[in-house]
Amino acid sequence: MKPALPLAVALTAALALSACNKPAEADPAFGAKVRAYLLEHPEVIEEAVVKLRQKQMLEQAKSQAGTVQKYRQQLERDPRDLVINPNGEFTVVEFFDYRCGYCKVVAPEVVKLIQENPDVRFVFKEFPIFGEVSDTAAKMALTPQGKQKGIQLYKAWMADKGLDEAALDRHLTEAGLEPAAVRKAAQDPAIAAQLQEIRLLAGALGLQGTPAFVVGDYVIPGADIGAVRAALAKVKSGAMKRPSGSPT
To answer: What is the model's pTM?
Structure first.
């Protein structure tokens, strides 16, 4: 059963809107029509509640705009990261862990977002926080071989609910890579240093878990792909409103 509060809020809001032209109290027939319509079409109420939640979320997500601006270069333009659609006009960044359950849930939507938005640069920030296997996977993904098969490995490792060391090697082999060679390359101290820099960056942004997304000035913790899409729409809309020649 849906909670009664959103219904009451929606009815109140609808009647309040009608007061722009005429107080609701002066036109009970109109109020009755509004109520009847909303009861017959409850999906309108649900849509309004979702929109309200997204608006509130975006306001909160933009509260760290100053911090995002400070670390923009590290977030979006680190040449060591895996980037899909590197020439895209807009940028979305994901902090993730291959063994994070919520990251796995949202991964298909991440891939879908990339496919539907060829104008978006998608930056993958390896942020392993779930133990040794996560750390190994992140290091493997950042090797030259791993980045060559980046999106393929991302999809395979995210789809594997029981990801362990053997599964890592199995998916590397399926991608046409030699596990022993990738493991050797993953021991490069430069990769360990990169992961430490990402951890410090996540800390500076106040991220306490995975997944987390950065879209423009918006920082979105959690697997809320709807919020990511809403933030992206805001960023694209703002870019379209800028005068020609203005910086993006």
So the answer is: 0.75
